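Checklist before submission:
- one chain only
- standard amino acids only
- sequence pasted in full

Submission:
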Amino acid sequence: MRVNKIKRATQRRKQHVRKKVLGTPERPRLSVFRSNKHIYVQVIDDVTGVTLASASTRAKGLKDQISNTSNKKAAGIVGQIIAKQAIGVGIKCVCFDRNRYKFHGRVKSLADAARKAGLVF
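Returned file contents:
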């Protein structure tokens, strides 16, 4: 019973955010997913339904650089990587989709690092 209640609440929060954020070819959506151990980011064009770039703490090259994949430092590194990939594809402006998460902690450090690396939100 309690699990269903929590699941409904998270789905409601996610829909609340997503109804305001839509990725277009000119300004795709930067979607964040975080688990207890890792953080994942994708740049998505919602019109065509295509992922243009993606990065996570599970990448082979990144696992060697960091010891802990579930902290703000790791999220910042992922933010820099996704910004470099997006700029390499030709994307400079994105809509930030924080999903159902509050904009603090790992999500905020990822966004700040992506901004410093050249992405415009």
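Reviewer check: The two ends are 39 Å apart (CA to CA).
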